[in-house]
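Lab notebook, page 48
Experiment: co-folding of the full assembly
Goal: obtain a model of how the components sit together before planning crosslinking
Operator: M.T.
Materials (sequences as entered):
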Amino acid sequence: MDAKEFDIIMIGGSAGSVRVIADILASLPASFHIPIVIVIHRMKNVVSEMDRLLSAGANNRKVQEPEDKMLIRNGHIYLAPQNYHLLIEANRTFSLDYSEPVHYSRPSIDVSFESGAKVYRNKILAILLSGANQDGAYGLEQVIQYEGTAIVQSPASAEYSIMPNAAIQKNNSVRIQTPGEIVRYLATLI
Amino acid sequence: MNKAVEISTGELEEVLSVLKHQYGYDFTDYARASLTRRFQKFMTDANIRSGYDLKYQLVNNAATFQHFLQTVTVNVTELFRDPQYYKTLHEKVFPMLASYPIIKIWHAGCSTGEEVFSTCILLKEAGLLDRAKIYATDINPKNLEKAKAGILPLHVMKDYTTNYIQSGGTKEFADYYTARYNNAIIKKELRDHVVFSQHNLVTDNTFNEFQLICCRNVMIYFNRHLQHRVMQLFYDSLSPLGFIALGAKESLLHTDIRKKFETVNSAAKIFRRKE
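Observation: model returned without errors.
Model output:
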């Protein structure tokens, strides 16, 4: 695969994705500089340890839930907070939005991917993992339209294949990879 | 999701200028990523195909503007959203408020009233509601009409009951509303202490002095410049040692005014004016 330079990596996942995300984070060296934004469908109005759980396996790197207007910084890993959509502004800061759920989801992967695509254009790598609804397919379409790079977890390797399949059907030019191939590709970006 | 209608940055700025000069609503300091989504949602719903058409419609058709105003602000809210916040409010803030003969509270950006009703329920349980005077304001008159009626869809009450219990509520939640057909009507005795009125945080000023201001997930739609202005407005509207509650992921850190507040609870985002 051709070598590209990315300013941001966005990862979206739902049911069956947390293990894959944990494996990806564990594979990255502490020096990995590209900021990573993770959007997972999560419960709302319950106390969540997701950020700490993901931090535990991430080579001592902290996975943090951004606050509104926080600057996106190199070397940082961010997790979309519960019950908000996570957007990115033109000046590469986060902004939060509490509008209607999209595909019954808030945070929605479509919303974050679309927002990231518009700001980062050909400098975004978006990865869509296992899940049991349609969220993310439209977002990847936006990523491709703005000349970013889109990867979908291969349906055969996904615990739930509905989300990868929906994205593949909507977008001809996505790259389809197993978690192992995704990990190996990310290793080439260092 | 269908393909959204696009509006360019230039077109958006032109529409903002029309809204400001023709209708007196200033959205120029709203955060762009979210605002652009709201514009596109309105355009999709109203079958407006381009930024130019939107501008044309708004210039020539006041009815379009009324419809637009309802859509452009985010009007999503819940009863007892973030139960931990309400628990903290009940445990850390209410005992302090109890020392005032009249407790004045401002819910700024109250939308359709759900957060206001949540506060009223907790005040009632703390025995403070009879002494409370609650001002609930919003930019959007339609929201205020809904809030005044106190009517919520019945099907969401199950989730809200769970939120209430997690907030530390111990009473029978169903006693706080009357179920009728597919609706739940919040009991009038809970709403009697609330005055709903229109107020625009962008352009309007302080109108009273409060012991508690609740403004959760409203300023996330503003840029830093406007956030700073509104925080100054809140500071000026708080009595010395008055409290302010923000949304779970809102921060005062980037505003200079941070120094004039102390943190009561960082997770619940409750702060207190120092003097």
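Interpretation: The CA atoms of residues 46 and 107 of chain A lie 15 Å apart.
Next step: discuss with group before ordering constructs.
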